Amino acid sequence: MIETVRGDITEQRVDAVVNAANSSLLGGGGVDGAIHRKGGEEILAECRALRASKYGGGLPTGQAVATTAGRLPARWVIHTVGPVWSSSEDRSSLLADCHRNSLRVAAELGASTVAFPAISTGVYRWPVESAAEIAVATVKEELRDSSLTLVRFVLFDDDAYGAFSAQL
Question: Which residue in 58, 65, 67 sits closest to 80, CA to CA?
């Protein structure tokens, strides 16, 4: 099942929340900052360990990796780096990869419920209608052969909520 809700992703009681992270994995603004602030030092400590080992140069755009959720009500945070919008280069496949790879990581963890934000629609300036179309289509495709029971898009404002709901 896929659903949309208007709300705060840091309050979702799901197995995994997806973080629209920056490549450093060390926190930032928007969703990334909110998850790190509310989740606490445990998330940052695991992100630092990832940077010290496997992702010394940062997490590549479209890839996904999991950490603890710290003080969040979820069990895990799946960090993914969305692409920056470009009017001169089609980066749609990278945005689709964010969703596809996040769902793959969720399945590997044994998660059955996942919450996504509107990846790349904040400071990365991706048009929300386009992001919604790519995100929902990718999730629908991936859920066909998945053990996940719920994917929830958690949207912070009315515009994003409307765009994602229209795609369902």
Answer: 65
With contact defined as beta carbons under 8 Å apart, do 30 and 156 qualify?
no
pLDDT at position 145 over 90: no
Cross-strand bridge partners of residue 116: 153
Residue 3 pLDDT class (50, 70, 90 cuts)? very high
- pTM given for the model: 0.97
Domains of the chain: 2-167 (3.40.220.10)
Rounded to whole angstroms, the Cα distance separating 39 from 79 reads 13
Q: How far is CA 128 from CA 85, 133, 153, 155, in A?
A: 11, 9, 13, 11
For 17-31, the pLDDT digits (tens) are 999 999 999 988 899
- Contacts made by residues 24-33, CB under 8 angstroms, sequence distance 24+: 24/51, 24/58, 25/50, 25/51, 25/55, 25/58, 25/59, 25/65, 25/79, 26/51, 29/122, 29/123, 30/122, 30/123, 31/117, 31/122, 31/156
**Catalytic amino acids?**
32
